[in-house]
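Researcher: For the record, we're logging two predictions in this thread. I'll number them. Prediction 1 follows.
Model: Prediction 1, sequence and structure:
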Amino acid sequence: MAADGLLGKVRVGFSIGSPMSWTEITQLIDVEGPGMEADDVNNDVHNTSTFPNFHRSMPGMVAVAPMAVTVVSDFDEDTNVEQNTLWGLHQQGTTVWWRKEISVDRTASEYTPFEFQGYVASIEPGTPKDDRQTTVITVRFDGTALGRGVAAASAF
């Protein structure tokens, strides 16, 4: 269990084919998402015998928020194959499998995986900060489930 909410490591990768052969995205700085939120469906029942009447809701369809992956940019085609592959996936609009692993403790010996299908919606090279050129890769959900697996050794 993570002490005080502090975890050790996050890993992200993608798989183009089946069976899964994961390619880890290296030089990772930050990952946000994916997250899930259910729509609110109003299911009020108006009643004249009791006051006040309260609004009620129930969960509706679930929207999956995009995953934003920030990496150190590497525009050298000889040294960063996975970033070049991501540029190609973006240009082709290809949906692939994505995997985000979050370590269960600081030793990073086991990771809880989250898997989903999605496409590279945008790739945005940023302005260099602190002598570091970054790129933000946004992945949008394009599947039927966002799966959470059981903690195990990393698949990367």
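Researcher: Logged. Prediction 2.
Model: Prediction 2, sequence and structure:
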Amino acid sequence: MALKIGNEIYPDHMAKFAQPKDFGSTHHWKTMDMYSTQYLELFQMMTSDLMAGIVREYLGPEAYLFNDQFVIKQPMEDYPFPWHFDNFYTSDPKGEFEGRYQAITTCWFLTPNNIDCGGLRFLALDKTSKKDFEIKDPNIENTETIDAQPGDVGIWTGNTLHSSEGNGSDFQRSIWLQVYSSIPLGKGWRSGYYDKQFLRNGEIAL
């Protein structure tokens, strides 16, 4: 499974979280990891019955929280994300390839996602080394930019190669990502990432 889009959530009340903040990583407030540690409401949504159902469907009855992240691109902002797969940014980048765990990313689209605004684009290939992230050609064969609307939820595996370009539109592009795994990946990975068990025997364990 590479990608699934479904109209699952209603983003209007999320707008307050997608505004400039005076904290963040890499691009100041624009890319903020572990955002749910700042806002209880986000943690409650990340661990809701809705998300439990999605995670249970793809990972089974045992699952763990790892990370959540806002990615915000302002109008006409040159803010690309290079090709990568999400498992690379964990404590065990090759673990899913080698059968040690499974992971999924769920993505709440808070604004339109398309080619004009630097929307997410995908290439369903398995990659196992850092050099594979350094693909520069935006016209690479078999690449598809997802056309999603506010309220859609995207789901992809931790081994799904994806990237995005800068925002060439006149509106902000905002997404909220959540990462779940079948084993704890946060312990020993940088600082402050989750290693909490989310599902135990199919039920919410928090």
